[in-house]
Write a structure and sequence with these properties.
Oligomer: single chain
Distance between the termini: 47 Å
Helix content: 10-25%
Strand content: 5-15%
Number of helices: 5
Structural class: alpha/beta
Amino acid sequence: MASELCKTISEAKLERHKNLFLNYRNLHHFPLELLKDEGLQYLERLYMKRNSLTTLPENLAQKLPNLVELYLHSNNIVVVPEAIGSLVKLQFLDLSDNALEIVCPEIGRLRSLRHLRLANNQLKYLPAEVGDLRELQTLDISTNRLITLPERLHMCLSLQYLTADRNHLWYVPRHLCQLPSLNELSMAGNRLAFLPLDLGRSRELQYVYVDNNIHLKGLPSYLYNKVIGCSGFELSDSNLTTQKPLGIAALSLGTLPPLQPAYVYHCLPKALSLEGNSNGRIASRTRMYRVLQNALMNTVLSS
C-alpha cells in the first residue's frame, strides 16, 4: 500500500496533476511524499476523504500553494490548525464528520473561501473571524454542540446557504437579518424559542427550516410563506388568529389545527385544484372543508 501511494504521488508530481485522489487509503498521517522537495506546486484539488488523519501539517500551504479545494470528510481531525490560514487560494474546505473541537481564528484569513463544511463534529463555538469570509456562500455547521452563532456572521455578505441543524441554539442572532444574500436558512432540531421579527423581510430569503424546535410557539408574519416544515412546532388556534396564516407546507399531520375561514380561503385554490365534482363546483361548505383538509394533508405528505 505504501509503495502504491508513493507511486501515485510521484506520478502526480511528474505529470503536474491538478487533482489528486487519496480517499480510502487508511492514512493515519499526512503522506510525507506530498511534502517533500517543492511539494505539488500545480495541485488544485486534494481528496483525502475517509482516512484516519488526526492533524494537518504546518507547512501545508508552503508545499501546496495553489490548492483551491481540500476534501477531508470523515477523518479524526480534532483541531483546524493555524496553518490553514495560509491557503490563500482555497475556495472549498470540507471537514465534515471529523472530531473537531476547535476552529482556529486564522480561518478568517481564507478570503477566497466560498464553501465551508463543518458538519458532524464536536464544535461548541465558532470564532468571530468566520465573519471575515466575505466570499463565503455556503456554511454547513449542522450536528455540532453550538449554543450560539458569532454575531460577526452578518459580515459574510455573500452567504446564501446557512445550515445549522441539530445544535443547541436558543436564538437566531438578529444580525443575521442583515445578510443581503441569504436564500436558505436551516435551523431544525435546535432549542429555538423565537425568531427575529425582521428575519423574513429580505426578498432574497426564500426557505426557512425550523422543524423540531419544541419551544418555538409562533412565526413572524414576514416568514409565514417561507417556512418549510414545522413538525415538533406547537401550533394552536391563538397562533393562527394572532399571526398571519402559515403557508400550507408549514403544517405537519400531527399539528393541523381546526380550520378557520381566513385560512380556508387562503388555501382554497390549492384544494379546488386537487379535488372537485364533475362540474367543478363544491357541493357544500362541509365538503369544501373536507377537501381542503385532504389538500393540506396531501401537500404535507408530498413535501
